[in-house]
Amino acid sequence: MSEPRLPSVYNLISLERCASTNDEARDLARQGEDAAPDGTLVWAREQTKGRGRRGRDWVSPPGNLHLSLILRPEVPLREAAQLSFVTAVALYDALGNISEPGHQIHLKWPNDVLLQEKKVAGILLESEAGGAEFPEWVIVGLGVNVAHFPDDAAYPATSLSAEHWTVTVEDTLVAFARSFQRWANIWVEEGFDKVRRTWLNRAIGKGKAIEVRLENETLTGNFKDLDDDGALILEGDGAERRIAAGVVYFPDN
Ligand code: BTN
Predict the structure, then answer these.
(1) Report field, pTM of the whole predicted structure over 0.90
(2) Fewer Cβ atoms within 10 Å of its own Cβ: the N or the C terminal residue of the chain?
């Protein structure tokens, strides 16, 4: 089978199957820059132990897209976390470029991409700073439900095929790689502001009443903003609260 043609900034490692592309990428990244330069993209057609956020499994059958990008940004860990928003806006554009008109794509805080208000993709950012301010590498893991979706997910899910898109994993991979290159350049050259504003314009629930489920409590309020660290600003009872991690739900769900 011929390999997809990605822009030359990427070093594509294509695998039939692995446990988790994030784990493969981490093992490579630890070997150093010669083994895994910035832009190394590990793609597996199937994962047998795909990982999601909050310790969840990510079901990863053949037909879906599973990739992990090794990046070596020269920024503090705090700023490197912005890369999950870079990834989300890039995937939004990529899906827009390969979709039929008339589909609703939204971004959902912090790391989800929705199609017809159901989760179609998730992002898992990992790094290893070992106490240093600057991480040696950051791994951006991206899973897109192209052909399959879990029907027992905590948040309702869908796939591109279920919404009648006729695109392949390869189409999705190439479209994402192209738009990620563009957005990563914007981030490196102009900083987070344009990414942040673009993300907010595409976000579901902005300015509306939302519920945020934290580890031990559930908060309600108005989704007001996203700060420079990617935290959600929730406004309620005349006060603002900054939320670094949680899951957003909408009152109708
Ligand atoms: C989420 O929970 O929403 C994040 C899902 C991230 C899944 C991707 S698939 C490729 C990469 N490898 C993994 O094991 N996880 C990420």
Answers:
(1) yes
(2) N
